[in-house]
Amino acid sequence: MLxxxxxxxxxxxxxxxxxxxxxxxGSNVLYLVGxxxxxxxxxxxxxxxxxxxxxxxxxxxxxx
Length: 64
Fold this sequence. Notes:
By secondary structure, this protein is mainly alpha-helical. It has 2 helices and no strands. The mean pLDDT is 84.
């Protein structure tokens, strides 16, 4: 559950960084770099969150 929460916070920070970068006509490249870093963190943490949701104790067969 922690990965999901961190992914959501990272997504919000990504949106804020993109808004600040494009809202100021691209005056500060640091906002763009931050947005890219937070976007990568969102994808990574979201992947960790979703991989924990998979049932690893039960085998899934192709015929099912």
